UniProtKB/TrEMBL annotation:
Gene: LOC112262548
UniProt key word Cytoplasm: yes
Annotated GO CC locations: cytosol; extracellular space; lysosome
Organism of provenance: Oncorhynchus tshawytscha (Chinook salmon)
UniProt KW Membrane keyword: no
Name of the protein in its database record: Interleukin-1 beta
A family per Pfam: IL1
Main subcellular location: cytoplasm
Cellular localisation: Cytoplasm, Cytosol; Lysosome; Secreted, Extracellular exosome
Entry's family note: Belongs to the IL-1 family.
């Protein structure tokens, strides 16, 4: 007689139950490989134990102990299964969006140079404040738990399809403005895709004070130059780079 179960015996799990049972002559067990949890295997073991009258069962006939061990194994295995599944489809998921503007530690504002399609940091006074760039800041949920409290964000120029991105130029990560025709692409970003170039980790270091680290090139931060040089574009630098500022005031407008 053949007994078939839709259970899968998983290898390399962090918990397993050792058992042995001699089946009556003529009784075979076939376990097909389907992605179902160890709970099925637990049920199969109990069925086998009952069919065999408990003879040869390594865990004995203490059903409460057996259930305890199996339940513990099931919980561990299912947790590992959830983590594996989440990792395989890991994606940054868009959560919300708000309008903001950014100034550096010298109170310089981000200004768009439309001719070169670059961002510059400049001191703005009086009637020139309208040159200040307003951003649509999109927040994301990380695909896997992280020890850091930094929040992934995407930064788009309000009223346009332009988004900040970090890509390499001559082997060095640099800040660019890229046009994104289909913004739906940014709602879910696989952690292994090149779309991660549009994401930055916003780490709050004080009241409204933040750093913006590239999610694609870790330890590279959005930065601005010294006050006396307004020709320098907003760009990427590594932490503690001389003559560059990496902390910003992100002022929310709604």
């Amino acid at each position: 007689m053949e007994f078939e179960s839709n259970c899968s015996l998983m290898k390399n799990t962090s918990a397993s139950v050792a058992w042995s049972s001699k089946l009556p002559q003529g009784l075979d067990v076939e376990i097909s490989h389907h992605p179902i949890t160890l709970r099925c295997v637990a049920n199969l073991i109990i069925v086998m134990e009952r069919l065999n009258g408990g003879k040869g069962f390594a865990l004995g006939r203490d059903e409460s102990l057996l259930n305890f061990l199996l339940e513990s194994a099931v919980e561990v295995l299912e947790l590992e299964s959830e983590r594996t599944e989440a990792s395989s489809r890991a994606a940054f998921s868009s959560k919300g969006e708000y309008e903001c503007s950014v100034t550096d530690s010298e109170n310089k504002c981000w200004v768009l140079n439309e001719g070169s399609m670059e961002l510059h940091a400049m001191m703005l006074q009086g009637g020139s404040s309208y040159h200040k760039v307003h951003l649509n800041l999109s927040t994301y949920i990380t695909p896997v738990p992280s020890e850091t409290k930094a929040r992934p964000v995407a930064l788009g120029i309000k009223g346009s399809n332009l988004y900040l991105s970090c890509i390499t130029s001559e082997g060095t990560p640099t800040l660019h403005l890229e046009e994104v025709a289909d913004k739906e692409q940014l709602k879910s970003i696989n952690h292994e895709s090149d779309m991660v170039r549009f994401l930055f980790y916003k780490q709050d270091t004080g009241v409204d004070i933040s750093t913006l680290e590239s999610a694609h090139y870790r330890n590279w931060f959005i930065s601005t130059a010294l006050q006396q040089d307004n020709t320098k574009m907003v760009n990427m630098c590594q932490s503690a780079t001389p003559n560059r500022f990496t902390t910003f005031t992100v002022q929310r407008h709604n």
